[in-house]
Automatic annotation (TrEMBL):
Name listed for the protein in its UniProt record: (2Fe-2S) ferredoxin domain-containing protein
Domain of life: Bacteria
Length: 136
C-alpha cells in the first residue's frame, strides 16, 4: 500500500513554550506574590487560541532566575536560524502575555521578541548548551 506524504507533523508548524515547574519555579513558598497556576492558565489559553504548544517540565536549572520559560522554535523557525530562547524572571501577567504574543507570532526565527521580553533573556545552563550543540 503506497504511503501518502505528510504535509505537516503535529506541532512542527508551531513553536513550543516549556514552563519550568521544578524546585523554585512555580513554588508559592519561594514566590508567594505570583499566581503560578494562573500563569499556566494564561499560557494554555494563548496556546489554545493561537496554536502553539505549552509543556511543563521539572527543573530547568537556573533556579536563581525563576520563573524560567523556554520558547523553542518551530521547524520553520529552526530553518530560519532560530534557537531556543531562555527567559528568566517571568513572574507577572505582563511578562507572561509577552511570551504568549511572541509564540503566537511564531517565536524564535519567525518573529522578533518584544524588546522588554528580550531584556529578560538568560543564558541556558551549560548542560543545555552542550545538548543543543550535539543535535545540530
Amino acid at each position: 500500500m503506497p504511503s501518502t506524504p505528510r504535509t505537516s507533523l503535529i506541532g512542527s508548524a508551531s513553536c513550543t513554550v516549556v514552563v519550568c515547574r521544578g524546585c523554585c519555579c512555580g513554588d508559592t513558598r519561594k514566590h508567594p506574590g505570583t499566581d503560578h497556576a494562573w500563569q499556566l492558565e494564561l499560557l494554555r489559553a494563548g496556546a489554545a487560541e493561537h496554536g502553539f504548544q505549552v509543556r511543563t517540565t521539572d527543573c530547568l536549572g537556573p533556579c536563581d532566575q525563576a520563573n524560567v520559560i523556554v520558547v523553542r522554535p518551530s521547524a520553520a523557525g529552526r530553518r530560519a536560524g532560530g534557537r531556543a530562547a531562555w527567559i528568566g524572571f517571568v513572574m507577572d501577567d505582563e511578562g507572561t502575555e509577552e511570551v504568549v504574543q511572541w509564540a503566537a507570532a511564531g517565536g524564535p526565527g519567525v518573529a522578533e521578541p518584544p524588546l522588554t521580553l528580550e531584556l529578560q533573556f538568560i543564558e541556558p545552563p551549560r548542560e543545555a548548551r552542550v545538548r543543543s550543540r550535539r543535535r545540530r
